[in-house]
Amino acid sequence: MDDLKRQAAARALEAVRDGMRLGLGTGSTAKHFVELLGERVRAGLDVIGVPTSEVTRADAERCGIRLTTLDAIDRLDLTVDGADEIDPALNVIKGGGGALLREKIVATASDRMIVIADESKWVDVLGRFPLPVEVVPFGLAATQRAMAKAFAESGVSGQMVVRKGKDGHVFVTDGGHWIVDAHLGRIADAARLAGLLSVIPGVVEHGLFIGVASTAVLAGAQGIRVVERR
Fold this sequence. Notes:
about 230 residues; alpha/beta; 2 domains; 6-stranded mixed beta sheet; 4-stranded antiparallel beta sheet; EC 5.3.1.6; Ribose5P_isomerase_type_A
């Protein structure tokens, strides 16, 4: 599986050109992209990156990639990031690594987003992977009640679990928020659910990336498949 992730990352790297401003994703597949990009940078490629997490920042610095912020530049040419699920319309669930807020900020500040993954992440309908929702700790119960109402209005339901870290304590994002993972099974109308979640005051961001990805690069036993959004 790790080899497939690296193959997808290598294929996405073919889209990178000298002088590009890049969004650098978070997660195990995106880590391969950062490492391969670092090899190209050490060989003379001139790019600058905006990391989507403190983990990615550390990886990029270790690989010798020049970094900047979205305060210093107004637009990115390309973001390359992984995904937890991808549907045929290239709508995506992200946030398994806990960086969904910064990932979405960076992706939507980019002209293009390439999602890289192994073929197991390709699904007919989003929702098998628990949907991450980044929330403010204050008023959590009220926020979860509003989330349950949004689920009902969009025809889904399921258990909500506050994410814990490996140490057993509540997982805290780079932005200081918590994550509620919603086990919904199938999300028939992901765009509707995205809209309903976005207007809940206690929700900072959710892991539904609707209409954001322009290309998916999927690596499988039969090779690489590239899917473009229609």
